[in-house]
């Protein structure tokens, strides 16, 4: 069995203490991850701090070349990384699965390498010159979730490194192996200490990381509850924070659409990565005049989607990633049944190995049900009937989350106006959960603060300095 190691100062560090990583398709052991302790974390931060002295002085062009070299390396190793990702995360190799995720790493890396941080002249007169500079911050802590671990990992670390920072990364304990291997590959294009990775199942490591005086910035993607803890533990040292947190995105279907035409788009908006996607469509509001037809079309489409072991190339959805998430989904569906929800398909976990939960559509349910007002993060979609668009908008906005939202209509102008009334970071029309490397993405309300991607995302990894002469 492959021995996985921590990465500190471009050295692979073996640990006697390890934790097991299981395949969610069949509970088999995928590998043993090295378990970092607080002293490993301190070593990683020290290595990053030392590397920062030189890395922050390299030219922007040199760093762009490094990011492009990283994109080449990821391309070269994408098959190997995709397979490891499927084994530990569960998502299928094909479809919108692991190979797709590796493509997202590569496309984002290439886009990142094109970004510039020019000095901007704010005023230039005979007596005054005011310049705006963007300088690196220092050591960045990168903390990632288990749903898209390689994509999100690369989206966090590459702009941080391009801006001249160095990084200490901590992957989720559920999916650490592919991140360790990806980082080992990425380090081939970087000087020692620029990227360090400490995997751990010890919660003390995360707490120490987010309160450590030598960490200047935290880029975190994960749940809103953990986001709150990070705000609190980083408060004393006033760290810069980018927090990409939970979502409970609403989609609103207007009466003028063709249910048959939009069914496939609606389905994948909700079930991308088995619903384990921050900005997946998690609550669907459908006008009463087409409610039954939309439900029927979604059920018909759901029946065509094969679910099973991700290594079997015919499957388009895999298992739920871990036991906690699986239990949460079972509980939320039970709560919906008790509240009188009508199960259109799925609704009962099969017996047998793995955390498989069937594609589940629930009708005749309202906003008071936990399946609607909490983030389910799994393959279950509640479908809520509305009569008046104003009520649907109020319901969509009556949630503490505000990551994404969507309006589905044949009238693009009206849909765009309604989209603007959704309280969220991204509002889509006739699509959902579409992200791009050149377009900023971030949450409103408790879905986070700061943005990722594009120039604005890169600037989050810098300190603005004004030089006024
Ligand atoms: P999580 O919050 O449980 O864990 C995320 C990471 O934080 C893991 O690496 C975990 O080990 C670490 N962590 C946990 N407690 C910590 C602490 N006290 N200090 C420091 N680190 C700590 O989230 P998850 O279950 O891995 O991911 C699912 C959640 O992530 C969902 O809510 C989803 O919506 C959200 N998410 C958001 C985005 C976005 O861009 N907004 C993207 C993906 C996922």
Mean pLDDT rating: 98
Ligands bound to this protein structure: nicotinamide-adenine-dinucleotide
Strand content: 15-25%
Low-confidence stretches: none
Number of strands: 22
Rounded radius of gyration (Å): 23 Å
Shape type:
globular
The percent range for helix content is 25-40%
What is the CATH architecture assignment of the largest domain?
3-Layer(aba) Sandwich
CATH class bucket of the largest domain: Alpha Beta
Within CATH, the superfamily of the largest domain carries the name: Aldehyde Dehydrogenase, Chain A, domain 1
Structural class: alpha/beta
Number of spatially distinct domains: 2
Largest sheet: 7 strands, mixed
Counting H and I runs of at least 4 residues, what is the number of helices?
Answer: 15
Structure description:
The chain is an alpha/beta fold and 469 residues long. The protein folds into two domains: 6-245 and 447-468, 3-Layer(aba) Sandwich (Aldehyde Dehydrogenase, Chain A, domain 1), CATH 3.40.605; 249-429, Aldehyde Dehydrogenase, Chain A, domain 2 (3-Layer(aba) Sandwich). It has 15 helices and 22 strands. The protein has helices at residues 38-55, 60-76, 78-89, 98-113, 149-162, 176-186, 203-211, 224-234, 259-271, 291-302, 323-338, 370-373, 389-397, 412-419, 454-459; strands spanning 6-8, 11-13, 18-22, 29-34, 120-124, 129-136, 139-143, 166-170, 195-197, 217-221, 240-244, 249-253, 281-287, 342-345, 360-363, 380-386, 401-402, 404-408, 426-429, 444-445, 448-449, 462-468. It has a seven-stranded mixed beta sheet with strand order 14-15-16-13-12-18-19, with helices on both faces. A six-stranded mixed beta sheet has the order 9-8-7-10-11-21, sandwiched between helices. Strands 5-6-22 form a three-stranded antiparallel beta sheet, with no helix packed on it. The chain is globular, with a radius of gyration of 23 Å. The relative contact order is 0.14. The protein binds nicotinamide-adenine-dinucleotide (NAD). Nicotinamide-adenine-dinucleotide is lined by residues 143-147, 152, 170, 172-173, 206-207, 210, 221-223, 226, 229-230, 244-247, 278, 375, 377, 403, 443, 447-448. The site of nicotinamide-adenine-dinucleotide has 29 residues, from helix 7 and helix 8.
């Amino acid at each position: 069995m492959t021995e996985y190691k921590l990465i500190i100062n471009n050295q692979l560090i073996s640990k006697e203490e390890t934790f097991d990583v299981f395949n969610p398709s069949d509970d088999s052991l995928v590998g043993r991850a090295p378990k970092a302790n607080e002293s490993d974390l301190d070593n990683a931060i020290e290595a990053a701090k030392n590397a920062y002295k030189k890395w922050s002085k390299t030219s922007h062009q040199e760093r762009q070349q490094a990011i492009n070299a990283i994109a080449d390396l990821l391309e070269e190793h994408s098959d190997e990384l995709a397979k490891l990702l499927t084994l530990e995360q569960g998502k299928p190799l094909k479809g919108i699965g692991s190979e797709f995720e590796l493509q997202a790493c590569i496309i984002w890396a290439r886009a990142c390498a094109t970004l510039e941080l020019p000095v901007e002249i704010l005023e230039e007169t005979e007596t005054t010159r005011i310049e705006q500079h963007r300088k690196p911050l220092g050591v960045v802590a990168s903390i990632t979730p288990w749903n898209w671990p390689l994509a999100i990992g690369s989206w966090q670390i590459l702009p941080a490194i391009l801006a001249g920072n160095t990084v200490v990364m901590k992957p989720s304990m559920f999916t650490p192996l592919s991140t360790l291997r990806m980082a080992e590959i990425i380090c081939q294009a970087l000087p020692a200490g620029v990227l360090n990775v400490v995997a751990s199942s010890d919660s003390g490591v995360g707490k120490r990381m987010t309160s450590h005086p030598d960490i200047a910035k935290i880029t975190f993607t994960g749940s809103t509850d953990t986001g709150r803890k990070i705000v609190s533990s980083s408060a004393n040292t006033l760290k810069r924070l980018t927090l990409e947190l939970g979502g409970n995105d609403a989609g609103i279907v207007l009466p003028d659409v063709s249910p048959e035409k939009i069914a496939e788009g609606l389905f994948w908006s909700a079930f991308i990565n088995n619903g384990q996607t921050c900005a997946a469509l998690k609550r669907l509001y459908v006008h009463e005049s087409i409610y039954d037809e939309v439900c029927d079309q979604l059920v018909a489409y759901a029946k065509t989607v094969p679910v099973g072991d991700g290594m079997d190339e015919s499957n388009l959805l895999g298992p739920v990633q871990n036991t906690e998430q699986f239990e949460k989904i079972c509980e939320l569906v039970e709560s919906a049944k008790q509240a009188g929800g009508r199960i259109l398909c799925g609704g009962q976990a099969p017996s047998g190995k793995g955390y498989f939960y069937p594609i589940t559509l629930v009708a005749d349910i309202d906003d008071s049900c936990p399946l609607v007002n909490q983030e389910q993060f799994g393959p279950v979609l509640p479908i809520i009937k509305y009569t008046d668009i104003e009520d649907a908008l109020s319901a969509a906005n009556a949630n503490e989350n505000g990551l994404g939202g969507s309006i589905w209509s044949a009238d693009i102008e009206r849909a765009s106006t309604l989209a603007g009334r959704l309280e969220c970071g991204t509002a889509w029309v006739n699509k959902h959960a579409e992200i791009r490397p050149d377009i900023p993405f971030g949450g409103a309300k408790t879905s986070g603060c700061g943005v990722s991607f594009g120039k604005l995302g890169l600037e989050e990894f810098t300190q603005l300095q004004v030089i006024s002469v």
